[in-house]
Amino acid sequence: MNNKLCQSCGMPITNEEQLGTNKDRSNNIDYCKYCYLNGEFIDKVTMEELIEKCSKYGDQAGMNEEEMKEHCRKLFPTLKRWNCTCTNECASGYNPNCTCENPECHCSLQQ
């Protein structure tokens, strides 16, 4: 498997065991098992909340907590879960009032 990033948390996915699963228990190639299980996101969080959570793992990436937060703030808006073109408010994280009908939009986390 080619190195690829989880499209939620940005973790490098280097083998199939790290892949999340769809509702039918098949592998989901976009998300890791720590973010996506049985067709749903495990953590119903905003982008900023996930950045806070991920910042605790900066040492695994050779960064301190603040460096990891900065890295995530740049990376996350480019990832599938957080990349939304409907409004700036949506693109910044959870927006329960999002009216986007794009199936790739995850602003309101209604998966």
Characterization of the model:
- The chain has helices at residues 47-55, 65-75, 88-91, and strands spanning 4-5, 12-13, 19-21, 27-32, 36-37, 40-41.
- The chain has one domain (4-84).
- The chain is built from 3 helices and 6 strands, in the order E-E-E-E-E-E-H-H-H.
- Helix content is 22%, strand content 15%.
- A hairpin with a 5-residue loop joins strand 3 (19-21) and strand 4.
- The radius of gyration is 14 Å and the shape is globular.
- The longest helix has 11 residues, at 65-75.
- With 111 residues, the chain is an alpha+beta fold.
Secondary structure elements and pairings:
Elements: E1 4-5, E2 12-13, E3 19-21, E4 27-32, E5 36-37, E6 40-41, H1 47-55, H2 65-75, H3 88-91
Antiparallel strand pairs: 1-2, 3-4, 5-6
Instruction: Tally the helices.
Output: 3
Percent of residues in beta strands: 15-25%
**Overall pLDDT score:** 85
Helical/strand content category: alpha+beta
Cα-based radius of gyration, to the nearest Å: 14 Å
Number of strands: 6
| Count of individual domains | 1
Shape: globular
Quick structural overview:
The chain is of the alpha+beta class and 111 residues long.
For this entry, give a set of tags.
111 residues; alpha+beta; two-stranded antiparallel ribbon; two-stranded antiparallel sheet; 3 helices; 6 strands; 22% helix; globular
